[in-house]
Amino acid sequence: MAHMKKRVKSILKITGIVLIVLLVALIIFANVMLDGIDESNAVSKLQTAGIAYEQNDVDYEGYTINTYRLGDPQLPKALLIHGSPGHWSDWINVLLDEKLLSEMCLIVMDRPGYGNTEMPATRELNEQANVATSVMAYYCDAYECYTVAGHSYGGGVVEQILLDYPNTTAKGIYVAGTLSPEHQQRKWYNHLAAMSLVKWMVPKIMRASNLEMMQLQADLLKNETRLESIRQPIILIQGTEDVLVPFETVEYYKTVKSEGVTYVIVDGMNHFIPWTNPDLIVNALLKK
After folding, report:
1. Where are the domains of the chain?
2. What is the rounded distance in angstroms from the CA atom of residue 282 to the CA atom of residue 276?
3. Looking only at Cα atoms, what is the longest distance across the chain?
4. What is the pLDDT of residue 176?
5. Interatomic CA distance for residues 66 and 81, integer angstroms
6. What sign results for the dihedral spanned by CA atoms 116, 118, 123, 129?
7. What is the DSSP track for 56-99?
8. What CATH number does the domain located at 39-187+218-286 have?
């Protein structure tokens, strides 16, 4: 019995050490991610390129949503929605495309819980869709339809917008989108980061991301039976070597959405398409 107690204590000690190491790794990862989120750097790139932009704080239920508009507001509009975690500047390589800006007006935003948006993080996809739609209502005329594009978790938000706001959306673009409930199950690190003793030790941006990830699968399952009702054309961009949103997501979507989807599959491409392959997004936005 004494030997057994000693062994249990040893196991618990090792487990505690492992959890601490994993927590430290999570915090380091979060700080690396934060280093890439620099609004002033993105704005500087726009200024250097001579691209005119307009920053606006859009009101949503008493909070302000940080948004930017680029291009002629008389042109067809598109909203670009970042992932989780993320920031509007994740789209900078798309925003710098001169041909795209000659044909479209682009809107970007910091989703709730990120960047300079005041609104705290929100769990549900339908609330994310409501916020995004309010942003576009600020920029669009009445009954004006627009394109929505989303990367990673932003793809799930795009799906929700297409479902909930069919009369104001003209086209949806999923860029390595989190669309498959089976492949968006909570991971061990999500449960770890949700623990009350842990979550306040990680940066705000990672708490926001984890809150979203804990709810994502349930929301995707709710939408599953509604997907055939989407009538807007969809372009789905996916790489075969994506380790964050598995390539199997493509096969899943083919089973739940039988028509109206154009698939852009790139062999060897990873998850970080807005940075590595912005041309694919530009082409999808410009596709008539």
Report:
1. 39-187+218-286
2. 12
3. 79
4. 98
5. 12
6. negative
7. EEEEETTEEEEEEEES-TTS-EEEEE--SS--GGGGHHHHT-HH
8. 3.40.50.1820
pLDDT value at residue 144: 94
CB-facing half-sphere around the CA of 232: CA atoms within 13 A? 25
- Cα dist from 112 to 6, 84, 115, 256, 259, whole Å: 48, 11, 8, 29, 32
pLDDT in tens, 190-225: 556 555 665 566 677 777 888 898 889 999 999 999
Give the per-residue SS3 of 155-182.
HHHHHHHHHHCCCCEEEEEEECCCCCHH
Q: What residue type is 28 in one-letter code? A: I
Rg (CA), the chain: 20
Distance of CA 2 to CAs 7, 8, 72, 247, 255, Å? 9, 10, 76, 50, 56
E strand segments, the chain? 53-60, 63-70, 77-81, 105-109, 146-151, 169-175, 234-239, 261-266
Which residue has 């090792």 as its token pair? 14
Report the pLDDT value the prediction gives residue 191, as an integer from 0 to 100. Answer: 54
Nearest CA to 149 among 172, 130, 126, 177?
Answer: 172
